[in-house]
Amino acid sequence: MAGQLYRHSYRVTYADCTVGNHIYYSRYLNLLEAARGEFFR
Could you name the domain of life of the organism this protein comes from (predicted)? Predict the structure, then answer.
């Protein structure tokens, strides 16, 4: 049974990153929430 693939593009801004260009862990929840909202749209 093949399911549909859902892909959500998000541009990571400088405000989302640390000095070493790693994304903050708390921002992952924001990214997932945005993708979930687009998925159900």
Answer: Bacteria
